[in-house]
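Let's practice the habit of predicting before peeking. Look at the sequence and jot down your guess about where helices and strands might fall. Then scroll down.
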Amino acid sequence: MNRDENLFPLDAATISIGRRKHAVSADGYKIVSLRLREAEFEAFSEQASSFGLTNNMALRIAARRIAGFLEIDDDTRQLLLDIGSAIDVVSERILDLKVNCARSGQVDMKEFAAQHAAFGQLFAQLDGELRTILNISRRRTDGRLMLQRAMNS
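Done guessing? Here is the structure:
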């Protein structure tokens, strides 16, 4: 049995990056090693535990956020769903206006203006949320703040 077989389970594959081999488990995870000085570890561990996180989960959250992975909290996800539903309602109302216009030959301009304004407001709200979510540099924020937000979501 060679050295790698002792370090990695049989179900793990290895890939080469440069001169090193990195294990990839069957479920796609890689193990990452990290060296911290005693004071760094204590401070980090204290911060993680203050949010009820294990060190591993805190590091994973930080790594994903720092790398710019897209993760949204439950409140933001619900807000996006609500905006989408509201846009669906406005779309149906505009379609009703079109159908009524085809039947009568007249457009209720007051209702059309109201639906147009509602759509504009919803679209602006959606655009603002998406810009915030998709802004990579904004997602790469202070590590402690990332942990705090993750625990609040």
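How did you do? The mean pLDDT is 79.
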